[in-house]
Amino acid sequence: MLFAFELSGEHDVLPRKEVFACLSMEGLQYNEYASFDQCLVLDITGEAIEKKLIFIAGRLAMCHHIIKTACISELFSEKIIEMCEACDLSEHLSKGQTYAVRAKRIKHHGGINRESIEGKIGGTVYRRGFRADLQNPDVTFRLIMTDKAVFGSVIASVNRSDYELRAPHKKPFFYPGVLMPRVARALVNISQVKANEVLFDPFSGTAGILVEGGIVGSHVIGIEVRRKISYGARANLDECKADYSLIVGDACRVPLKSSCVDAIVTDPPYGRSAAIKAESLHELYSESFCEMYRVLRSGKFAVAVSEKNVSEFAKKAGFSMVDSFDQKVHKSLTRTFTVLYKD
Ligand SMILES: C[S@@+](CC[C@H](N)C(=O)[O-])C[C@H]1O[C@@H](n2cnc3c(N)ncnc32)[C@H](O)[C@@H]1O
Q1: What does pTM read for this prediction?
Q2: What separation in Å is there between the alpha carbon of 203 and the centre of ligand 1?
Q3: 3-state DSSP of the chain
Q4: 20 to 30 A from 164, CA-CA: which of 35, 76, 176, 184?
Q5: CATH for 132
Q6: What is the span of the domain harbouring residue 270?
């Protein structure tokens, strides 16, 4: 069955990786059917697909809607209407249900008037004997106008405004250098940590990553070398009612047993603005990655965000490299996201 993920435009790669990781976490198999600008169409197989996708929408940060795809056409009004007239809607709309049609144009694609195409598609559904209800429809159809036109029914939407409420400066404690909540959540998702599992951040700072892990129901553990920041992190974690343990200490000497955490997501200091408590950045990375490897259970993932290339430190510590991709933050800062695995 085809499902389209309407992705946010915050990053080229991160939204896609987040979707793939969540599907794997929920045991769903997928094949990439098509990849358009801000829209990923996947052929998904497995048990209870829609139920799992609704759950996944509650975790995703960099996606707007998940759409059960009815049809895909070239991006011309006539082609779209033809496609909507011809396609089978029996899996989307049942007798007696009401509907609404919404269209979204991604960036410059198409130049088709949104309201006009919504009305025309609505007409094709109306002529099949269904009643429109724009305020409170049973089924919302969505047309994504990207490289092509992707049409289907919305099965789940992501509540993106919650992330705005958790913007770093709105939290009880703020300190510069923190990741934005949506990036932090995407990384938590890429680590595939589940509710009731243990997520660890050895450079926890103000707990931006741990807050997102706590909200998805993980028990979160953080280490931060600066006492004042660790106290502030406590306030941030209390506010979101996370189940947490914070340690004031050194990421190079982690006071945890071996193989006791299920996932690691971390944002180590880069060496410029953030304070480094170690002999050198080299030593800090070398020793902390060995500690991360030691405390992570086998068969689990670690995700690191860094300005520095961490792959050599990670490989020396024993990790296998799964993935690595960059984000240009501004002219002089490029972040690298590295996904690691412990065999
Ligand atoms: C880039 S910041 C992490 C920001 C964090 N993600 C947040 O949400 O605030 C890196 C943090 O590592 C801490 N740090 C530096 N050296 C450390 C060490 N040896 N052990 C533990 N934490 C350390 C810094 O004090 C800083 O708060």
Answers
A1: 0.96
A2: 4
A3: CEEEEEECCCCCCHHHHHHHHHHHHCCCEEEEEEEECCEEEEEEECCCHHHHHHHHHCCCCCEEEEEEEEEEECCCHHHHHHHHHHCCCCCCCCCCCEEEEEEEECCCCCCCCHHHHHHHHHHHHHCCCCEECCCCCCEEEEEEECCCEEEEEEEEECCCHHHHHCCHHHCCCCCCCCCCHHHHHHHHHHCCCCCCCEEEECCCCCCHHHHHHHHCCCEEEEEECCHHHHHHHHHHHHHCCCEEEEEECCCCCCCCCCCCEEEEEECCCCCCCCCCCCCCHHHHHHHHHHHHHHHEEEEEEEEEEECCCCHHHHHHHCCEEEEEEEEEEECCEEEEEEEEEEC
A4: 35
A5: 3.30.2130.30
A6: 164-342
